[in-house]
Amino acid sequence: MFYSLTGKLIHSDLNTAVVECGGVGFLCHVSANTRAKLPQMGSPVTLFTHLQVREDALDLFGFFEKSELDAFKMLTAVSGVGAKVALSILSDFSPEQFALCIAAGDHKTLQRANGVGGKLAQRLVLELKDKLGVSGAGENAAVQAVGMVSASTNAAIAMEALVVLGYSASEAALALGRLDSALPVETLIKEALKQMTTNR
Predict the structure, then answer these.
(1) Which CATH number describes the domain made up of 67-200?
(2) Where along the chain do its domains lie?
(3) The CATH number of the domain covering residues in 4-63
(4) Torsion sign across C-alpha atoms 34, 35, 38, 42
(5) Which has the least CB within 10 A, 55, 59, 114, 129?
(6) Residue 115 and residue 89: Cα distance in Å, rounded?
(7) Cα 75 from Cα 23, distance rounded (Å)
(8) What is the pLDDT of residue 170?
(9) CA distance 29 to 14
(10) What share of the chain has pLDDT > 90, as a percent?
């Protein structure tokens, strides 16, 4: 229903931000990552949004970046993952870091987020890898890449992570092909996301 909100930031606290648009203040639930990127009070701000409709409430969630919104939707589509747990995960991990965990099959790192136990972390990895077609070869490449400095491996991991975030392999390859493959994995993902978001 709401793709984004652009207005003036009139309030923020630990878990929420209020954006005033046309005299109406919209209360958005936010992650710690989004909260850290909010401008000063009274400044203009744009948040990408997701409206969750329940029997007894309408909850609006706001994200500073489109990639974080995409990761939120992906998380809440997994059985047993509600909005609260999804925000907790996205408070501990950027979308790029989350995608790397899935691509590498690293369920142990995901348990760092509040509310994520061992079984849920494993379910996240299994369901998202199956849903998005992350290959076993990609998993092995990602796991082997931990602690290694290899330009080709960095690009491979970045591609796996972008596929986890919902982009096609061809889109990811095209974006990564314009970048210096010697860059760190997270930088490659962030720069590729900027390109693909602009082109969409």
Answers:
(1) 1.10.150.20
(2) 4-63, 67-200
(3) 2.40.50.140
(4) positive
(5) 55
(6) 9
(7) 33
(8) 65
(9) 9
(10) 46
